[in-house]
Amino acid sequence: MLGNWSFDDYFKAEAIEWAWELLTKVWGIEPDRLWATVFGGDQADGLPRDDEAARLWTKVTSISADHVLAFGKKDNFWEMGETGPCGPCSEIHIDLGPDACDMKNVPGHKCSVNAGCSRYIELWNLVFIQFNRQSDGELLPLSAKYVDTGAGLERFVAVLQNKPSNYDTDLFMPIIGRTGRIIGHKYTSKLANKTDNAFRVIADHIRALTFAITDG
């Protein structure tokens, strides 16, 4: 997991602008493949739509206005628990193209952000912590504002290397290749293949164990 944090320093404008700069200018991802989501508000909590974030997306980046979408608490409001710091978030999604959809045979399915298929995947979540939820559920503004972002390293690598999954990147393929040579089977990159799934499980566990052993 990658990320950046601000403790009452920069806030929404900088977090949005810098994320966009890294994705489009440093890594060269085509802007028209990217979509942003913002908090659409919640009547129960008395919270309005995050118009500030929506406005900033079209002000400090080159994203098209129709690529900025609003969603509810489930997707665009971060909370650490029943009480404590929380706030709206803004997610960045990428369109992997029609061929990436895994719900083509589902009647009535239409590819879109947060529609459930694998064509659009989340790359980065920018969390704007500006409230403190009380034990009675009331949300009070924090005296200071914070940014906490989380980004998927493996997803970034898969996108930048144009691979169909995280496991087909150079983060996992050396492990998968070595495993194949040991057991005498070949990895074919097929999602529905039981042998390929076993390769992925082994690679994931080996990497996790490597970190665990290194940490003592």
UniProtKB/TrEMBL annotation:
Keywords for the protein's UniProt record, in alphabetical order: Aminoacyl-tRNA synthetase, ATP-binding, Ligase, Nucleotide-binding, Protein biosynthesis, RNA-binding, tRNA-binding
Protein biosynthesis listed as a keyword: yes
Keyword tRNA-binding among UniProt keywords: yes
GO cellular-component term (any): cytoplasm
Domain Alanyl-transfer RNA synthetases family profile intervals: 1-216
Gene3D superfamilies xrefs: Bira Bifunctional Protein, Domain 2
EC number of this enzyme: 6.1.1.7
Pfam family, one: tRNA-synt_2c
MF (Gene Ontology): alanine-tRNA ligase activity; aminoacyl-tRNA deacylase activity; ATP binding; tRNA binding
InterPro entries: aa-tRNA-synth_II/BPL/LPL, Ala-tRNA-lgiase_IIc, Ala-tRNA-ligase_IIc_anticod-bd, Ala-tRNA-synth_IIc_core, Ala-tRNA-synth_IIc_N, Ala-tRNA_ligase
EC primary class: ligase
PANTHER family the record matches: ALANINE--TRNA LIGASE, CYTOPLASMIC, ALANYL-TRNA SYNTHETASE
Protein name as catalogued: alanine--tRNA ligase
Organism: marine sediment metagenome
Source lineage: unclassified sequences, metagenomes, ecological metagenomes
